[in-house]
Amino acid sequence: MDKVKINNHQVFSLVADYTIGTTILSIISGVAEYAAQDAWIVALITPLMGFPFLLIYFYLAKLFPGKTLVGILQDVFGKWLGTILSAYIVFVCFLSVSQVVFYIGNFMKTEYMTETPLYAFNTFLIIAMAIGLMYGLECIARTSEIFFYIITFLVLLVIILDLPNVKKENLFPVAENGIIPILKGCLYLNSYVAWPLIVFMMFCPINVEDIQKTRKSFFYGYYWASFLNFLCTIMSILILGATITAQTNYPTYLISKEIDVSVITRVEGIVTFSWMCSEFIKVSVYFYAGLVGFTQILELKDYKKMIIPISIVLLVFSGVVYPDAQYQNMWDSTMWELLIGFIAAVLPITIIIMKKIKDGVRHIQTMKINEKEHYDSVQSLFYLGLAAFIIILSFFLIKFLLM
Fold first, then answer.
1. What is the mean pLDDT of the chain?
2. pLDDT at position 141
3. Count of beta carbons in the 10 Å neighbourhood of residue 238
4. Where, by residue number, does the polypeptide cross the bilayer (predicted)?
5. What is the pLDDT of residue 310?
């Protein structure tokens, strides 16, 4: 197991680069498809909706000090069920690697080299990722520090150069279709911005000195990435309008083509480079989290021996993970929310409630309490269980109502 420790600034840059990832280029169109010209409102309020989930993740780390998500699941649900749930999370991590690699390869094939096979781009990224992880998490963390400044500078540069193309009328009317489309957009964006941060629980507890002291850096990285995403979203609406933003696959890339300031033109390569930097960090974090979880499930000593064989499998899978663009859009807007929502919303809350129930039962069994205290304890356990059921049911009910 990789016992290297990363500092707070590296946590900040990892979270920021990871969160920027897919959102600044391709997810904006999905948000606009739900909320139209109100997509900027979605990008503004979604970080606030995601904040409670981050608090839950750190509360989990406080309840189970020094344990990764795999260890927590096995401790709460037992060896067998905990291992099954852990395997599910590892599968989602590896699936996400193939998805992100596909996004990059498909973008390059569509926008730049149409005659080049998809696997050529995917192979290049997989090799770069595997080499980085061979050197360990510290290599990826240091790379993210460098990439953070590059990504931030380039994104802000594109935003500033695009200001002359802004059309304020594209923002109106506000909330024309009511609040439901905005809530749908928030749920969709949250599944790409806040919920995926649960994968940091797969390794952060063993790769930082004190996970509670990294909370501020974690939050700063999350909100900085959300701020950049908000800027890209509102600029896409202001320049392209809601209809074009929803119809194009890469709105941020498209608005960069609109830049024409004196001799400064054709700067879309800036967006491409910054996006690929952030996606490299994102795919590396997913892969590392999956490897750490896989290693813990099989009780292996070193994850590095598994990098090459799993990389080959993921490379093959990256070319077939999405049969076509229509299937990709359907999966990203429906199935992905359910997959990551179970891991990042339902499971953590259930873990906390199960932990409280176990502690309550242990208290009843070990402490000498009178009859009234016994009744109060059992009643509290009942209400905790009822709350767990309501929370889980509410998640799927909200998802059903917003479809």
1. 86
2. 93
3. 21
4. 12-34, 40-60, 80-105, 117-137, 146-167, 187-208, 220-244, 273-294, 306-323, 335-354, 381-402
5. 94
The CA distance from 237 to 166, in Å, is: 9
The H or E element spanning position 244 is helix 242-247
Write the DSSP string, 169-231: GGG-STTTT-SHHHHHHHHHHHHHHTGGGGGGGGTHHHHSS-GGGGHHHHHHHHHHHHHHHHH
Please indicate, yes or no, whether the overall pTM of this predicted structure exceeds 0.85.
yes
Note the pLDDT of residue 359. 74
Alpha carbon distance 156, 274 (integer Å): 11
Q: In the structure encoding, which two tokens stand for residue 295, read together? A: 């290693």
CA atoms within 13 A on the CB side of 53: 27
pLDDT for 308 equals 93
Matching residue, tokens 């480079």: 273
Q: Is the confidence at residue 67, as pLDDT, over 70? A: yes
With beta carbons less than 8 A apart as the criterion, state whether 130 and 308 touch: yes
Q: Identify the structural domains of the chain with CATH numbers, from first to last.
A: 8-325 (1.10.4160.10)
Cis peptide before 181 (omega within 30 of 0): no
The answer to whether 39 touches 186, Cβ cutoff 8 Å, is no
pLDDT for residue 366: 66
Which residues is 151 bridged to in the sheet?
A: none
**Which residue is listed with tokens 């205290």?**
373
Q: pLDDT tens, 110-165?
A: 888 888 898 999 999 999 999 999 998 999 999 999 999 999 999 999 999 889 88
Q: Could you write out the DSSP letters of every residue in 366-389?
A: HS---HHHHHHHHHHHHHHHHHHH
Distances (CA, A) of 52 to 58, 64, 135, 289: 10, 18, 34, 22
